[in-house]
Amino acid sequence: MTGVEPDPDGNIYVLYRCFENSCANRPEAPILKFDPSGKLLKSWGAGMFVFPHGSTIDRDGNFWATDAGGMPGKGHQVMKFSTEGKLLMTLGKAGVPGDSTDTFNQPCDVVVATNGTIFVADGHRDAVTGATGNNRIVKFTKDGKFIKQWGKKGTGPGELQEPHTIAMDSRGRLFVGDRINNRIQIFDQEGRYLDEWRQFSRPSGIYITKDDTIYVADSESGPDTGARELMGRKKGIRIGSARDGKVTAFIEDMEPTRADHSGAEGVGVDAAGNVYGAVVRRRMLEKHVKK
């Protein structure tokens, strides 16, 4: 599991990586739609993805997903689907990595503003070589036309190393999980750097509700494997305010100090306040019930 998105009707969309962490040459459909009880309603996307990664639901209920892998004729793309699985839009060139106005290199996540403007967090770390793709945020019109981009590899303000997740608060600010730098960076929609937060630990996934409660999934902290993981921090989902950055709660992971990257990467919250964690290594969807 890598992505989870509750919709306003209580349905749950899940994005997962088929088999052995990859959808390359696999028959499975990596997008699953469940009702609130967990009954599978629909699935789609078979043969369309290499390495499904990030997801979002826009204000019209459309489901978006990124493909952070690549192979000839497939991958390095962002796709928009209807609630019934019809492909509505594709950004990027299939199987072509790049940093131009119409290509991506391992796009991690996507978020859509209320006016339809699209923002893509572009760039992931190769699990084998450690090399990163792009380190940028790319902005498009609602029709998919390139507007601008910002960010480059680095550790300074506005610089990025593996922009793994992106979310938007009620004010339209962009919260980017700058994972290798162990911080969230906050930008306006023109790419102006506003702030950075480190109190939410190492961000793999970010979800912000309408009341600006922020949920940040840390799937990697603990022993350092060479990717600058935070030593001595427990994996889990930290909860707080997107307005002032105060952390108010912590859902500790089942394996909080395990050396492997074992915690939830994707995180989502339904209308009842229940928190869902999409866990890659344990291959499961976790539901944490609000009490």
What do the pLDDT scores average to? 96
The oligomerization state is single chain
Shape: globular
Q: Quick one: CATH class?
A: Mainly Beta
CATH architecture annotation name: 6 Propeller
Biggest pleated sheet: 4 strands, antiparallel
**What separation lies between the terminal Cα atoms?**
25 Å
Question: CATH homologous superfamily, by name?
Answer: TolB, C-terminal domain
Percent helix, as a range, is under 10%
Give, in order, the helices and strands: EEEEEEEEEEEEEEEEEEEEEEE
Number of helices: 0
Alpha-beta content class: mainly beta
Strand fraction equals 35-45%
What is the CATH topology? Neuraminidase
* Low-pLDDT residue intervals, each spanning 5 or more residues: none
- Tally of distinct domains: 1
Keywords:
291 residues, 43% strand, globular, Neuraminidase
Element layout with pairings:
Layout: E1 3-6, E2 12-15, E3 31-34, E4 40-44, E5 52-57, E6 63-71, E7 74-81, E8 87-91, E9 107-112, E10 118-122, E11 136-140, E12 146-150, E13 163-168, E14 174-178, E15 183-187, E16 193-197, E17 205-208, E18 213-218, E19 236-241, E20 247-252, E21 264-269, E22 275-279, E23 284-288
Antiparallel strand pairs: 1-2, 2-3, 3-4, 5-6, 6-7, 7-8, 9-10, 10-11, 11-12, 13-14, 14-15, 15-16, 17-18, 18-19, 19-20, 21-22, 22-23
